[in-house]
Structure formats: C-alpha cells, structure tokens
C-alpha cells in the first residue's frame, strides 16, 4: 500500500492511495492558484517497495578437491528475474582461484586453484530492476590439491 499526499500552502489538497505498487503511477501537478508559488506545494510519496524474489541456484557450491593447474566448472542460474542486464563478479580472499562468465540466463563459474589449501569466495550478481538495483550472491568453496 502506498499513499501520496500533496499539501498546498500547508493545507491538504490531494490524498491518493493505491494498493498495487508494481504499476506505475503518473502524477501531474498543475498550479491551481495564480497567486501561490510552487514553493508552497509539497508532495510526499509514502509506501513500501517490494522487489521480486530473485536468487541464485545453487545458493552455495563446493567444487571439492582439484589439483593446482586443473579446473572444475559449475553452472548457476538466476531465478525469478530476466537476467539480461547486470554484472557478475567474484568477491572474497580467494577470488583469484574462481572466475565467472555470464552465459544468457545462467553464469558459468570455474574453480582453478592457484595454490594448495581450502579456498572460499562469493559469486555476486548485480540485478538491475524496475526498482532499486541490488546484489544477490552464492557461496563458493573448493580445495587446491
């Protein structure tokens, strides 16, 4: 539920509420009194934006034990969003052992350990939406052998 309140000269002039905040609302403000300035008109839009539920599948992935110099691949899917725009990145202390490439609606992730030991990182996907843009992520791990 969202609500618009317009005050003109300190007095409520317009109040409008709508329940479907996913549909665009067009507001046209006309100067209705020739002796009032635009500084006298204040508009507040109050409500809650609910973005669609978007996630990565799988939510986490363990590549297992891979020899240094070899690689293992896995595919991740963006669920609940048409992933045509946006960026993909790897974050974390061991990000050098992981790489990601956008491939249509999915993301190809490669684990190629640069040295021995446990490796952890995070696959991050930037989602551009009708509302505010946001990040979704998935945990990555593997062991360099």
Explain how this protein is built.
By secondary structure, the chain is mainly beta. It has two domains: 2-46, no CATH class; 55-144, Immunoglobulins (Immunoglobulin-like, Sandwich). Helix content is 0%, strand content 54%. The protein has strands at 2-8, 11-18, 41-46, 55-57, 60-66, 72-79, 87-91, 98-103, 106-111, 117-127, 134-144. The protein has a four-stranded antiparallel beta sheet, with no helix packed on it. A hairpin with a 6-residue loop joins β10 (117-127) and β11. The chain is elongated. The N and C termini lie far apart (55 Å). The relative contact order is 0.21.
Could you list some keywords that capture this structure?
4-stranded mixed beta sheet, 4-stranded antiparallel beta sheet, Immunoglobulin-like, 145 residues, mainly beta, 2 domains
Short description:
With 145 residues, this protein is mainly β. The protein contains no helices and eleven strands. It folds into two domains: 2-46, no CATH class; 55-144, Immunoglobulin-like, CATH 2.60.40.
- Domains counted in the coordinates: how many? 2
The portion of residues forming beta strands comes to over 45%
Q: Please, how many helices?
A: 0
Order the strands across the largest sheet as they lie in space. 4-6-9-8
CATH architecture grouping of the largest domain: Sandwich
Reconstruct the topology from this structure:
Elements: E1 2-8, E2 11-18, E3 41-46, E4 55-57, E5 60-66, E6 72-79, E7 87-91, E8 98-103, E9 106-111, E10 117-127, E11 134-144
Parallel strand pairs: 5-11
Antiparallel strand pairs: 1-2, 1-3, 4-6, 6-9, 7-10, 8-9, 10-11
